[in-house]
Design a protein that fits this description.
Blueprint (H helix, E strand, L loop, with lengths): L10 H15 L13 E2 L5 E3 L2 E3 H18 L2 H18 L9 E3 L2 E4 L2 E2 H16 L5 H15 L1 E2 L4 E2 L2 E2 L10 E2 L1 H17 L2 H17 L11 E2 L25 H17 L5 H16 L10 E2 L5 E3 L2 E2 H18 L2 H17 L11 E2 L18 H14 L7
Helix pairs in contact: 1-12, 2-3, 2-4, 3-4, 4-5, 4-6, 6-7, 6-8, 7-8, 8-9, 8-10, 9-10, 10-11, 10-12
Length: about 400
């Protein structure tokens, strides 16, 4: 464990940290046969060279398109294009959907997931912002696909899952795909200036952070039935599930808070700041571990911890929200939160030997396994959080 304390609020620290994460992936990530390798152990060795998950494939594109836009290294643009090509030529199927999981180039999980398609939209938007012209068509195509197969006009929300023929819609409804669609639509707005994307992003924020949250005492529940009523029983025996855990997710409350604050910058709305504060404050009050530090994965409706693991993305999304709240309100407690989250992460989540962040730790901060970057991770959350803080600081580098 490293206890030395950098200046976490320094733009120079954040920029150097981003470059250190890029450096972990740099020599080993590009797969000559297509796409990117995704399964890295702590030391950087790859334990699965054949699997490509849609979310991971798309997140790498986001990483390298953003890195190129901000730092201008030509190979990052080439990698973003390489990854976008793999999405559209490898993951994309003949009926327009993008396969959730490929193994040795073959589809091995046939579910069609709104969550995964949200990241395709985010990847395309990131490429458009980076000046990759071919991405514009992909952006509008995936948006229309989502409109046709997942948008529920009566509910003002996206549904979750279809079968590979696109004819059968699963009755499950969830907030996670909608949260990432809110993020992707914001990015699409920033990339194109097309107001339909900002309008829809606002609609999703209103629906989930305010309207549906009213069913669960102002917090955002993960799971709903097909009528968009809170489903308190879904996965009740799986509070540790990676994608659909039972319980309140402190990291999702703060991730929504961050999105609300970004929305407020794009188009001010008197609802967003107080709601962001409410979501963030409750998440920190219930999710921060007073004994060991760090923020837990899951909190039960009674306020007790139901999943005590500490995930990398929970810490990083929360420090980004804390900084935005500090920047917008000037309230010193948010600055203090930002620093204490970073300090715990610096001590327990950042790998000071090999680079990047560990994916998950035990409640006391000790190691769970040696799989630093399994399918889907890519450190998109950690670099994205640093970039978001820099944006809020006004310290992003000039766009190329």
């Amino acid at each position: 464990m490293t206890t030395a304390k950098p200046d976490f609020a320094s733009p120079d620290f954040l920029q150097k940290h981003i470059h250190s994460i890029l450096a972990f992936y740099e020599p080993r990530v590009v797969a000559p046969e297509g796409g990117f390798y995704s399964c890295f152990q702590d030391d950087g060795s790859c334990y699965d060279t054949t699997s490509r998950q849609l979310v991971g494939s798309a997140r790498y594109v986001v990483n390298y398109a953003t890195a190129y836009r901000l730092y201008g290294k030509p190979h990052h643009k080439e990698w973003a294009q390489w990854g976008l090509d793999y999405l559209t030529q490898g993951h994309r199927q003949s009926n327009g959907h993008y396969a959730w999981l490929l193994e040795s180039g073959k589809v091995t999980d046939t579910r069609v997931m709104a969550y995964g398609h949200a990241f395709v939209l985010l990847a395309a938007a990131s490429c458009v912002r980076a000046g990759i012209e071919t991405a514009t068509a992909t952006l509008y195509e995936i948006h229309e696909f989502m409109e046709q197969y997942f948008w529920d006009e009566s509910a003002s929300a996206y549904t979750d899952e279809r079968d590979q023929s696109l004819t059968t819609l699963d009755p499950y409804r969830g907030q996670n795909a909608n949260m990432h669609m809110c993020e992707a639509l914001l990015a699409a707005w920033q990339a194109t200036g097309d107001s339909r994307f900002l309008d829809r992003s606002e609609l999703l924020a209103q629906r989930f952070a305010i309207d549906l949250a009213a069913q669960s005492d102002g917090q955002i529940w993960e799971h709903y039935d097909q009528n968009w009523q809170v489903d308190m029983e879904f996965n009740i025996d799986k509070p540790n599930d990676r994608y659909k855990p039972w319980g309140f997710q402190p990291g999702h409350q703060t991730e929504w808070a961050k999105l609300l604050l970004i929305l407020d910058k794009e188009r001010p709305n008197k609802l967003w700041l107080p709601k962001a504060q409410q979501l963030y404050d409750r998440a920190m009050a219930t999710g921060w571990d007073p004994e060991h530090g760090g923020i837990v994965y899951g909190v039960a409706p009674d306020g007790s911890f139901c999943a005590t693991e500490k995930y990398f993305w929970v810490q990083s999304e929360t420090f980004a929200a804390a900084w935005r709240l500090y920047a917008q309100t000037g309230d010193e407690r948010y600055h203090e939160d930002y620093c204490r989250i970073w300090q715990w992460s610096w001590d327990h989540m950042v790998d000071h030997v090999h680079g990047a962040w560990f994916r998950v730790r035990n409640q006391d901060g000790s190691a769970i396994d040696n799989k630093k970057s399994p399918l889907g991770k890519t450190d998109y959350h950690t670099m994205g959080a640093c970039w978001d803080v820099l944006t809020a600081m006004g310290k992003e580098l000039a766009e190329h």
